[in-house]
Amino acid sequence: MTSFLELSTLDVAYPPRKVIRDLTLRMSRAGIGCLLGPSGCGKTTLLRAIAGFEPLRRGSIHLDGVELSRPGWTLPPEQRRIGLMFQDLALFPHLNVTANIAFGLYDWNVAERRARVDELLKLVGLEEYAGRYPHQLSGGQQQRVALARALAPRPRLLLLDEPFSNLDVALREGLAREVRSILLREGIGGLLVSHDQFEAFAFADEIGVLHQGRLLQWDSAHNLYHRPVDRFVADFIGQGVLLPGRLGSNGRVSTELGELWGTPPVDCTVGEPVEVLIRPDHIVRDDASPLRAEVVERVFRGAEFLYTLQLPSGARLLCLAPSHHDHAPGQHISIRLDIDDLMIFRRGGD
Amino acid sequence: MLSARADRWTLWVVGIAALLALPILTVFATALQPAGPVWRHLVDTVLADYLANSILLMLGVGIGTLLIGVPTAWLIGVCEFPGRRFFEWALLLPMAIPAYIIAYTYTGLLDFAGPLQSALRETFGWTRHDYAFPEIRSLPGAVVMLTLVLYPYVYLLARAAFLEQSAAVLEVSRSLGAGPWRRFFNLTLPLARPSLIAGMSLVQMEALADYGTVQYFGVSTFTTGIFRVWFGMNDAIAAAQLAALLLLFVFALLVLEQLSRRQLRFHPTSARQQRLPRLVLRGRRGGLATLACAMPLLCGFVIPASVLAVWAARTMPQMLDERFLRLMANSLLLAMGAAGLILVLALLLGYGQRLRPRPLVRLAVRGASLGYAVPGAVIAIGVMLPLAAIDRNVDGWARVGFGVSTGLLLSGTLVALLFAYCARFLPVALHGVEAGLTRLRPSMDDAARTLGASPRAVLWRVHVPILRGSLLTVLLLVFVDVLKELPATLILRPFNFNTLAVRTYELASDERLADSAGFALAIVLAGVGPVILLSRAIGRGRLEP
Description:
Low-confidence stretches of chain A: none
Largest sheet of chain B: 2 strands, parallel
Radius of gyration of chain A: 24 Å
Oligomer: heterodimer
Number of strands of chain A: 21
Strand content of chain A: 35-45%
């Protein structure tokens, strides 16, 4: 499969600070991706570089095999056919819904423009609001106008800069799913920037974790969760703890929970101190097990409880258990490990 | 591609800015030339007078505007008394009257042949030598005239400062036992000081720039000196040297104003702070407050405007002919054209700066803003010198090359006048445009760009429509400024080309005050427009002086 969006060894800088460092990424055709990272990780800068607002220090950006940016040369945003949905939406306050959506269609002929605007109004379910102005719409409706406006000129790729973050949590994931299905239907690639992993999981097929300007991992949600490449990703995605251990031969790790097996990092040598990733769903309550831990905290999550458990050494674990098993803090329970792929990291490494 | 485009914007902005800064640079460059006999003559004879009169005028107007502006601002901002809401905006009305016009009306009213002295003589049977009446056409007279029309600047800034003062500070001082007078002098006034100094320096710049009033009153200042040297002694270098000296004064005031504005920023003036309950003045005290606000309004607007109206009613029937209409059309078209041009340039500079916020562009835009505060007479000299040099060269070259004389291509035409207006009034427009643009979030621009709009299209399809209201206000402000501009127009207007301001000046200089009233009234009426806009901004409480 040819790659659709291709970023090669990018550096982007706001002198004197490098915001994006040596970033390489390939997105497949009409795929839906997400750049996930804490605030300040450079994800918005990367998005702006793809849209054509930030020049490159190094590397190149290609879309459909055509170069868009290289150091010293940036194709202007208006010639890229890349749409952008903003966190603050940036609707034009002087134009009504119809005119906002039609903004990018000014060189279309009247009939086509009208047809396209009608199509989009229907797509986002705003037919009845066509004549309203942005300030007369609710937050969710404004979001839909912004989406329709960005989609109208049939961009090749739609970039989304945390456009859902102003909505309340209940609306957020729903709208993310909805936008996803619209993009798939229209055959437009999408790249979302977010700091919220659940939004990312709901929206994207492939997710990249960005930290301090570097892309740590570009992978499916499942792999990010179960096979994080490093401690930061392991910690940032999902919940879990890193339990200390010592590496033996053949990927054997001896820990307080017993002997575990996995694939150690290539540069680890036998006898080295390591850490293993233990997710809450790796720990199963099992009365037959000899392993005992004390409940120190309990959070009700509806269908399940999230327990914080303490081992005799003082190390703590997280454990998800169906909510019909209720254990008060102070109680001891028996647990068993159930891990398919054990992730092993060097201790104290990054 | 982006870099080529960016360079084009940078080039435009830097080019326009350099052109607009040219007059001031010319004045300084010319002033550095060795002094000729005229300059030495000036130094030996009248320069000391120019200096003394200019400084006295500056100080007098500064003190006068503080004496009127601060008490009225305090009454309006802090107290409650009959008519407060009316005076709040009406106190701005004198701004609509150019200083030279108020000087004409009071001269007509108060000089020997005027109605007041005539009435005194008739009533008491006096003759010329029986009584002493202060001469209005004097330095003190000029101070009073300028004070009457310039105090609103101080009033505006002082009022805003008093309104912003936090209730908490005043309440604390009260709990510490400070009475109302001590609170005013030890707290309210010192807290407002940066605003008062900023207002006073603005007023003093205007006073230094005045030509019409001091010329009419026969007071020798820098501006009248520049005219005398330029037209009377035909010495461009000496005129430029006088202009440069005047500019040094102006820049000193500018620095003072900027410093006090910077100081303003450190004062805690949050809008969220609790407003102080107004001090209610009733009975005799309320009456005195009303009177205190009525006097400046009466003397600064009602009386002069009424005098103009009465005169105009008497003389207009004869004056209203084809020539009057042509003059009117000339003036309005010129002012509109200049305002439009200035607005477009301001948009280019403001938007260029938004598009390319690099140091070079910022510096260029600041440089273009220098014309603010530069007296019209100085700008005119700075425009005339380079344009005349170009004309001379083109003419000489054409004579040699083609045997024809091209004459005055630039310096004797409207080009020179428009150039001067741009250099003088662009900062006014730029201030408005920049204030408008900063209210638009940058994501708006970016959204339009990703939808296929070029930078130019963003300006025309997004910014201009959204900022329509602010841009119209800017247009009106500049229009009125151009309409009443006198000294630069006098120096630079093409032969036989007249404007309302120039015609008013000519008729008044010929002692035909009543005949000039129609033209003057037209200028005043046009000037009321911006004052109404300003007062509406005050009403909405988002006035930014």
